[in-house]
Amino acid sequence: MRITADGPTLVLSGDFDVRSTGEVRNAVYEHLRRNDEGAITIDLTEVDSIDHTALKVLAVASRFALRGGQRIVLRGTCPAVRRMLHLSHLIRFFEVERDAIPA
């Protein structure tokens, strides 16, 4: 898992699964502490695979952010990730950016 920060956005790439949840958790909480804009975006466009444990880590971080007056926005969620969010009922913890409609 590679994690890079680009302003209020955390860009994740690679496999986001039980092996990388600790690293991502630490990065998200640190990013929330440093962010004063009210929202951070987690870009999943370059994530090759994601599991339920990883989504739960993001959901807990989102609840933490909401208690502090912030929010987490997910970007680049492929259909499989959106389906997992809906099936697990974790979708309620996030704002998910819609893909742009090509002209």
Automatic annotation (TrEMBL):
Pfam families: STAS_2. Gene3D superfamilies: STAS domain (3.30.750.24). Residues 1-103 form the STAS domain. PROSITE patterns: STAS (PS50801). It comes from the Bacteria. InterPro entries: MlaB-like_STAS, MlaB_ABC_Transporter, STAS_dom, STAS_dom_sf. PANTHER family: BLR2341 PROTEIN (PTHR35849). SUPFAM superfamilies: SpoIIaa-like. This is STAS domain-containing protein.
